[in-house]
Amino acid sequence: MLKKLFGTSQSTFRGGFRTTYDRIGSALAVAFDLNSTLGYRLSPSISANTFNVSDRLAPLFTGLNQNIRALPGLPLTTTLRFPLVTPSDESQRIEQSLDDTLVTPRSYSFNLSYARDLGRGFSVEASYVGRFGRDLLVSRDIMHLNNLRDPQSGVAWYDAIRPLIDLRYRDTPISAVPRIPYFENLFPLTAQIYEIGNTATQGVYGLIAKPAVGGFNVTDYTYLQLLLDDGMGYGNNLFFHPQYATFGAYSTIGTSDYNSFQTSLRKRFNKNLTFDFNYTLSHSFDTASANEQSGAISSGAAFIVNPLDLKVNRAPSDFDVRHLINANYIYNLPFGNGQRFGNGWSGVSNAIFGGWTMTGIFRWNSGLPAGQPFDDARWATNWNVQSNGVAIRPLETSVTRNGEPNLFTNPLQAFQSYRNPYPGEIGDRNSLRDEGYVALDAGLYKSFPLPGEGRRVVFRWEVYNVTNTQRLTGVDADGFGLPRDPFLRTAATTGFGRLTATQTPLNENKAGRVMQFALRIEF
To answer: Residue 264 falls within a domain, yes or no?
Structure first.
């Protein structure tokens, strides 16, 4: 039975494993030199929300090269004293540096394959390929706002505030809001926000409730934490650190997992033809996909929005491709001397009609992640980086081509399928996909002999994207921001889901058909 299955000297099993380590030391030293505010350089800045247009006006601009040393909120020092310490003055600074718990990132790679010779030049191979990254370098906010837990009720901020947000969606009157022990225990002074007789819970609810029920409509929930921090509870700085609002730092807390099944059918060159056909089924998950240098440390693409719960950051990778098919071939046309047709042709006929070769490369893959609608002008979880929207019903992402190209079949219905994220949520990550990419490249070649030994002219005609297929991508970021309560609105944001570009081949800047011709003399 095994002989029938594996043949006689026709099967091969292979496997491999390796561990690799990333070299990050020198790059981190450069990053610390460029970005840290404590140490190699001094780059002071005025904290966010220091000035406004009503009661905290900024100094007037009087011209270029004005003296900045007198600006309020801009501490400048002419001396350095160690240890260097940022003052605990509650200035909501947004700064960056390094995590002091860094370790060396590592990856584990596995592969196991089975190959079988099918005879007549054909062979097949099936493989499992995996790669698992641990302690990967990402960036996170090490001064992330506290998910404060009430020691009496055992409930934390993320869980306590959600029922109030749900009541807000239902336009619940302030007087009808029941007591929630979390707010009664930790923030008793919020009962004084409205008339005497309200509970602390009703006071907090009044801050986020809609104006129709007498609320202030505060839906930037990290700003709500700032309001509660200002004397509403048992002491200040229950949520915020007194030195920083955000302190981005490189940290080795990232993980990634890639698993794939890969299969190939190959034909060795005989009877004028050779080809490969390959299929890959894969899935890649991680906590952050981008290179750690992609953007600022405290807000870049490798930034962990909620470092208190790494599981909520884990999702399909930015480069996740579920299905991939590629094939290539070389085919010598059967015309000319020694071929099926035209064997024995004269020199002129053979020179014109013989010796032609066709080649081709085909690729199709399912769509890459297309980006996500984000919570515009609100910060639910992190003080510096907005969370994405959360889909509350299934979405159809079939690209609309009539009129304005759009990621969604029905942009308004898609817009109304989202809600703003709750505190603690980072929103949906990589749940929307672009169209799949498809391309066929082909070539036609012919060599003409020249007088003399080993001399010839080679003609080449190559066509990239033979079918001139152009798949759309590039969701308009300006229109992808979600306003307050999108699922309750009757009109979508202008440009929501609008596609603005075409998918291009690697290292190319255009997606259309390209032809090139060449003549080469060989001697």
So the answer is: no
420 touches 509 (CB < 8 A): no
Show the domain range for 165.
Answer: 157-239
Please provide the DSSP assignment of 133-161 as one string: EEEEEEEEETTPPP--B-TTT--BHHHHH
User: Which pLDDT belongs to residue 1?
Assistant: 61
CB atoms within 10 A of CB 177: 23
Residue 101 falls inside a structural domain: no
Query: What is the mean pLDDT for each group of 10 consecutive residues in the chain (523 residues)?
Result: 69 96 84 68 69 84 78 70 77 83 95 94 97 94 94 96 97 96 93 80 95 94 91 80 89 96 96 96 93 66 91 94 98 88 80 90 95 92 94 82 81 95 96 94 91 86 94 90 94 92 82 92 88
Exposure of 5 in the CB half-sphere (CA atoms within 13 A)? 3
Q: Same domain for 328 and 232?
A: no
| Domain end residue (candidates: 194, 216, 239) | 239
Are 375 and 478 contained in the same domain?
A: yes
Q: Do 279 and 325 form a contact (C-beta atoms < 8 A)?
A: yes
Domain boundary (182, 206, 239) is at 239
Beta strands in 306-455, from DSSP E residues, in sequence order: 315-316, 323-332, 356-365, 374-375, 390-391, 418-419, 437-449
* 39 close to 305: Cβ distance less than 8 angstroms: no
Both tokens assigned to 521: 């003399």
Q: What is the pLDDT of residue 90?
A: 82
pTM: 0.84
Contact 125, 113 (CB under 8 A): yes
What lies within 8 Å, CB to CB, of 515 at 6+ separation is 461, 462, 463, 464
